[in-house]
Amino acid sequence: MARARVVVFGYGPLALASLDTLERRGVTPVAVVVPGNRSGPDVDLVVAHARSRTWTLLAQPPRTRLAPFLDLVRQLQPDLFVVWSYSMLLPPELIALARLGAVNVHGGLLPDYRGGHVMNWAIINGERETGVTLAYLDEGIDTGPVIAELRFPIDRSDDAATVRDKLKAAGQSLLETQWPAIEAGLAPSVPQDESRARYYRMRTADDGRIDWSASNTAIDNLVRALVAPWPGAFCSLGDTKIVVRRSRPLDADGQGAAPGTVTRGDEGAVHVATGSGLLQLLSVEIEGRPVRGADLRRAGLVAGARLAGTP
Fold it and tell me: What is the largest CA-CA distance in the chain?
């Protein structure tokens, strides 16, 4: 059987994971496409990888300038598109160019977690497990029929960085296992249960604002979901922005302290009252600089200080 002609869409480490997986399967992409609405190291990573192998490299333009791009893709005579970690929608006229369709490696469970940044949302929502779903693309956002999924636990010790590592491994395993059926046009195609569908929007940096009236567990989930290189969960002390990089819920209660009140602040620990329980701040950045020890006191993180959302 002739090998499928594959075009890969993606940027960043997860896009490289898809390319590595396909290469292990003996697939040489006829082109790699990066999103035209992104720039920076994650795009540069994929560009460098494609150029090192002399693969055809394309950038998807805005819808208003799509026609020349469609012509270029059409000339490639693609059988399949593979999409993993991509920031643009593939319009129907683009998907239609792939004879066997477009396969998306989605970093969440469908249909429960459709949309953007769903890995982070799952941690924020306190989910005990998440996973990767392999699905075909259609005109909607993560609404296409499912090929397969692979689930894995989210442990209390996990954060976004460790969950992304699990997600990468699961996605590669799923793509590699299902590839023979996908390439042969024989992969499952199971419609999603629309009654379970939930859509999550793309997060913004402002979504990291801490609501101290929430429980200590909920706030810790937010912190874990936004560890570096994500922008972080944050609050303010007066006009000073504080980013909480690591935290830990404590069994002790706030003994009546208002949410956001520092109940202990010394070189050993900073404890903050929440809507339910105390939260220990283990690692913080103040005005972009890591702060610990005696500097915490000098920054004002002392008993009685009140933390709030940044205006």
Answer: 72
Tell the CATH topology of 6-200. Answer: Rossmann fold (3.40.50)
What's the pTM value of the predicted model, to 2 decimals?
Answer: 0.93
Q: Between 97 and 254, whose confidence is greater?
A: 97
Chain centroid to CA 138: how far? 21
Domain with CATH 3.40.50.170 in the chain: 6-200
Put residue 134 in one of left, alpha, beta given phi > 0 → left and psi -120 to 50 → alpha.
Answer: beta
> What span, in angstroms and rounded, lies between the C-alpha atoms of 257 and 249?
16
Q: What is d(CA 93, CA 170) in angstroms, rounded to the nearest whole number?
A: 30
pLDDT digit string (tens) for 34-79? 999 999 999 999 999 999 999 999 999 998 899 999 999 999 999 9
Q: Where in the chain is the domain with CATH 3.10.25.10?
A: 205-298
